[in-house]
Amino acid sequence: MKKLSTLARHLLRLPGVNRDKIEAFADLGKLSLCATDLGQGFEIGKFRYDAVFSIERFPAAQAQLLLAVLAVWIAENDPGRDLLNLNDPDVDVTLEDEQTAFVQISIEFEEPLSIVPDPAGPITWEGQQWRVDDVPIDVADTVDKLENT
Q1: What CA–CA distance (Å, rounded) separates 54 from 93?
Q2: Which of 51, 57, 68, 116 has the CB geometry, 3.0–4.6 Å to 41, for a possible disulfide?
């Protein structure tokens, strides 16, 4: 749930948002199982969930700033949303008084669940120990030979 925690940290940078005013959690999670060999590890599943953020006593005058920051963060950090058919965020704003609002944001995310070999890892699978981590991707620096087929 990297996107959930990364977006929560990002929202904490906004004026009027601090740890005692924000709550973030994953809701309606669904784990789709797979075992895709990525060379140096496996993608063993995909986790699709709604990331829910509740912000109390948010400065009502900053509502448009919040929406703009949210839109930009999503564009920069979750560019493949269309390919995954993820819904656009739902945002509810309830005015508490003339200056503050309660804001609830729900964003659908999908993230891979990957494991890599680790002799001290907590996961035993296929007779080997593993840990949850991103699988390193090898990128070729040079190409020795290309043949026409």
Answers
A1: 10
A2: 116
Contacts of 24 (CB under 8 A, 6+ apart): 4, 5, 7, 8, 51, 52, 53, 54
Q: Which amino acid is at 29?
A: G
Positive or negative: CA dihedral 78, 82, 84, 90: positive
- State the pLDDT confidence band at 131, using cuts at 50, 70 and 90: very high
Coil vs helix vs strand at 74 = helix
In one letter, which amino acid is 123?
A: I
Beta bridge partners of 111: 47
Question: Above pLDDT 90, what percent of the chain?
Answer: 73
CA atoms within 13 A on the CB side of 95: 5
Structure tokens at 1: 């749930």
- Tell me the average pLDDT across 75-91: 94
pTM of the shown model: 0.82
Residue from 129, 124, 135 nearest 42 by CA: 135
SS3 98: coil
DSSP string, 2-48: HHHHHHHHHHTTSTT--TTTEEEEEEEEEEEEEEEE-SSSEEEEEEE
